[in-house]
Hints:
Layout: E1 4-7, H1 11-22, E2 31-34, H2 41-53, E3 57-58, H3 62-66, E4 71-74, H4 81-88, E5 97-100, H5 106-118, E6 122-128, E7 140-144, H6 148-157, E8 161-166, H7 171-200, H8 203-213, H9 219-250, H10 256-269, H11 280-288
Parallel strand pairs: 1-2, 1-4, 2-3, 4-5, 5-6, 7-8
Antiparallel strand pairs: 6-7
Helix pairs in contact: 4-5, 7-9, 7-10, 7-11, 9-10, 9-11
Amino acid sequence: MSAIATIGFGEAAQAFVSGWRSEDGVSLGQISTFDIKVEAPSLRDNLRHACSDLDVTCGESPRHALAGAVTVFSLVTADRALQAAANVAEFLERDALYLDCNSCSPATKAAAARLVEAAGAVYVDVAVMSPVHPARHRTPLLLSGSEAKRAHNILLSLGMKPEIAGDEVGKASSIKMLRSVMIKGFEALTAECMLAARRAGVEKAVLASLQASDPGIDWTARAAYNLERMIVHGRRRAAEMQEVAATLRELGLPDRMAAAAADWQRQIGELGITAPENSVEARADAILERNLT
Length: 293
């Protein structure tokens, strides 16, 4: 396997690399990364420790990290994805494969593709279809673009779980964005419902009513899980939901639910809470103690 680079070395990149390292039969070459945290003194040490733990070269610049890399994974937050492509495009090797794994609208992906391809590299739209833990590198991926088959073969060689959605950039991201209307919207509805129910002292009755209406879902477990997702990942999910809202507008549809879900995700994510024990009550109380308005 030729050299691999990641743009961004947060949760997703570390999950992928640790998965590759654990995979029997996967031959890995050099792995390097560039993350903007290297430019922040308060975050630099943690980044370097993470790189050291996973035997990854932490580049001081995009030029350093991308030198010789023929497969590049862009794994930043949705709101940074286009800027990341703009910042690194000139340093990509000619014909390098740029796998844009960020949760962005089709229009954002298309704009990033133009930047990457103008620099002589190859762009593939990648949608990460579930949380990267616990599956790590085996998290399901959707691919689209003219070189999706090439990317598919490389990802298979890394022990990953790709499927091809089509040959048009934006097809994979459309599926991910529109799925998120439901998944992240459901989380936001859970917060609105359960926080109000807890404050009113009727959460057990509300959950029992939901369970009776739809016994196919464990409503108590799902409500606790949805609150945890927002507490831990709300800021990142808010950035994704802004891209979901953009996708809806690109399709000529209103973005009312997506925009409201983004607000809920952001507000809870910005509270900076450490996720409490696995119960609806504890998680709702931790949020309500922060005096939401």
